[in-house]
Design brief:
The protein has helices spanning 40-46, 66-77, 88-107, 122-145, 162-169, 186-189, 195-203, 213-227, 254-260, 264-276, 295-308, 330-350, 367-376, 391-398, 415-419, 431-442, 446-462, 465-488, and strands at residues 12-19, 22-28, 31-36, 52-58, 81-83, 151-155, 174-178, 207-210, 230-231, 235-238, 241-247, 281-289, 316-324, 358-361, 379-382, 406-410, 424-426. By secondary structure, the chain is α/β, with parallel strands linked by helices. The strands form 3 sheets. A 9-stranded mixed beta sheet has the order 5-4-1-6-7-8-11-10-9, with helices on both faces. Strand 4 (52-58), helix 2 and strand 5 form a beta-alpha-beta unit. Helix 3 crosses helix 4. It is globular. It starts with 11 loop residues before the first strand and ends with a helix. The protein binds adenosine-5'-diphosphate-glucose (ADQ). The site of adenosine-5'-diphosphate-glucose has 24 residues, from helix 1, strand 12, strand 13 and helix 14. Adenosine-5'-diphosphate-glucose binds next to helix 1, strand 12, strand 13 and helix 14. Its EC number is 2.4.1.15. This is alpha,alpha-trehalose-phosphate synthase (UDP-forming). In the C-terminal section; belongs to the trehalose phosphatase family. One of its GO terms (molecular function) is alpha,alpha-trehalose-phosphate synthase (UDP-forming) activity. One of its GO terms (biological process) is trehalose biosynthetic process.
């Protein structure tokens, strides 16, 4: 929370994201308790210290009554957060439906759900209508709190319709939009029934940002091929108006991790973990339990490794920490059972009375426990099938300066572009290749590990979340000023 407190002012920044960085739990008619929530965006923006930032978003709870809404608004104001109240039906159609069932899988190359393939299906149309309605509700709240000169930064696939709604309120508003997921090839995007509407709404922003140059290129191609607009080195042009499109790779607050390692409670935890896993190499996976993270593929590759390297069976342990998300969605429930089944089978096959090869935990770890785990890990396994960036790989590197462990990283994570030279890159679909890279990582010479780690550590500590946000916001400012100069000429 301390990171959300008021700091010396530089510029007012309205950060608009689907979720606020806190979860609210109702304690009484007019009392709420607030808890910080995990997730990539939260982690990144907690690192931003230089702006007077206010957050606008949904608190993750249905609050139908006015007393509750008023009390929650007041409690959140202390954390510089402003709620958008969404009712259950909207959440179902907009969030569970259009965002998580349509855009999320599509942007990660998992295709559209079968029954929604036709634009004419009722569920698709009503979900898209709810999506637009929800985005309009976000715009209404932004507009109520907007003051001239504010920078409005919209985040992620939940709010692709927001730039358009904001510009309709006030064409002078400085609006940026950043996507945390991949933007897929235009051939994938063009299967989306609402493809043009979404592109046009995003183009209403002054600056559009992605994690990697490839995603930015895919977006520009989608605009040229689907909308027939002109792509320029700067972005996309429509009737003389330019929308800047660029890559802004996110980072983490690396100091926060490095400092945490010195804390007595973290040191204590490290000691305990070292004792518990003495004599065994520790491999680690930390993911939200989501199909894009390639958890079953990772575990199957580990099984293949154990199969082919019998001498390693009692010398290595895989700790897989998976926070359940979207637990009410049947596909996610299926994934949980699938992972449990594979882990059970492998532990039955290779375990002994005293030790099992895989420890799988379905839960979130607190920050200090996570840092300790990263620090004792010999090999981190990130096998996302697609991932916008993947901050876990950055966090692992930040905590490894004494151990210099190895990062095995999917080539389909955005992080492969920045940490590729230090990591062992793999195709997560190729289980044999991942199994081989596990052996390579476990047997790598200390000199090679040092060299690879150094490369990644320098990157992670110099490309921070704070720098990412500052770059985006100053670029947004410049873009708006340049556009104003152009119209004056
Ligand atoms: P996520 O898909 O949530 O983020 P990621 O970037 O890996 O993925 O961030 C996850 C965050 O949650 C990390 O900070 C991690 O420490 C934390 N976390 C994960 N599992 C945890 C556990 N079991 N216990 C505690 N903490 C846990 C989205 C995109 C990513 C993109 C980010 C930021 O999908 O590709 O990198 O946004 O843009």
């Amino acid at each position: 929370y301390e990171k959300l407190d008021v700091r010396p002012l530089r510029q007012r920044l309205l950060v608009v994201a689907n979720r606020l960085p806190v979860s609210a739990v109702r304690r009484g008619e007019d009392s709420w308790s607030l808890e910080i929530s995990a997730g990539g965006l939260v982690t990144a923006l907690l690192g931003v210290k230089e702006f007077e930032a206010k957050w606008i978003g949904w608190a993750g709870v249905n609050v139908p009554d006015e007393v509750g809404q008023k009390a929650l608004t007041e409690a959140l104001a202390e954390k510089r957060c402003i709620p958008v109240f969404l009712d259950e039906e909207i959440v179902h159609q907009y969030y569970n439906g259009y965002c998580n069932n349509i855009l999320w899988p599509l942007f990660h190359y998992l295709g559209l759900p079968q029954e929604d393939r036709l634009a004419t299906t009722r569920s698709f149309q009503s979900q898209f209508a709810a999506y637009k309605k929800a985005n309009q509700m976000f715009a209404d709240v932004v507009n109520q709190h907007y003051e001239e000169g504010d920078v409005v930064w919209c985040h992620d696939y939940h709010l692709m319709y927001l730039p358009k709604c904001l510009k309709e309120y006030n064409n002078n508003m400085k609006v940026g939009w950043f996507l945390h997921t991949p933007f897929p090839s235009s051939e994938i995007h063009r299967t989306l029934p609402s493809r043009s509407d979404l592109l046009r709404s995003v183009l209403a922003a002054d600056l559009v940002g992605f994690h990697t140059y490839d995603y930015a290129r895919h977006f520009v191609s989608a605009c040229t091929r689907i909308l027939g607009l002109e792509g320029t080195p700067e972005g996309v042009e429509d009737q003389g108006r330019l929308t800047r499109v660029a890559a802004f790779p996110i980072g983490i607050d690396s100091d926060r991790f490095i400092r945490a390692l010195e804390l007595p409670q973290v040191q204590e935890h490290i000691k305990e973990l070292k004792e518990r896993f003495a004599g065994r190499k520790v491999m680690l996976g930390v993911d939200r339990l989501d199909m894009i993270k390639g958890i079953p593929q990772k575990i199957l590759a580990f099984e293949k490794f154990l199969e082919e390297n019998s001498a390693w069976r009692d010398k290595v342990v895989l700790l897989q920490i998976a926070v359940p998300t979207r637990t009410d969605v049947p596909e996610y429930q299926k994934l949980t059972s699938q992972v449990h089944e594979i882990v059970g089978r492998i532990n039955g096959r290779f375990g002994t009375l005293t030790a099992v090869p895989i420890h799988h935990l379905d839960r979130s770890l607190d920050f200090h426990a996570l840092c300790a785990l990263y620090a004792v890990t010999d090999v981190a396994l990130v096998t996302s099938l697609r991932d916008g960036m993947n901050l876990v790989s950055y966090e692992f590197v930040a905590c490894q300066d004494s151990k210099k462990g190895v990062l095995i990283l999917s080539e389909f994570a955005g992080a492969a572009q920045s940490l590729g030279a230090g990591a062992i890159l793999v195709n997560p679909w190729n289980i044999t290749e991942v199994a081989d890279s596990i052996r390579q990582a476990l047997t790598m010479s200390p000199e090679e590990r040092e060299k690879r780690h150094r490369h990644n550590f320098v990157h992670v500590t110099t490309h921070t979340a704070q720098e990412w946000a500052e770059t985006f916001v100053s670029e947004l400012d410049d873009t708006v000023i340049e556009a104003q100069l152009r119209t004056k000429q």
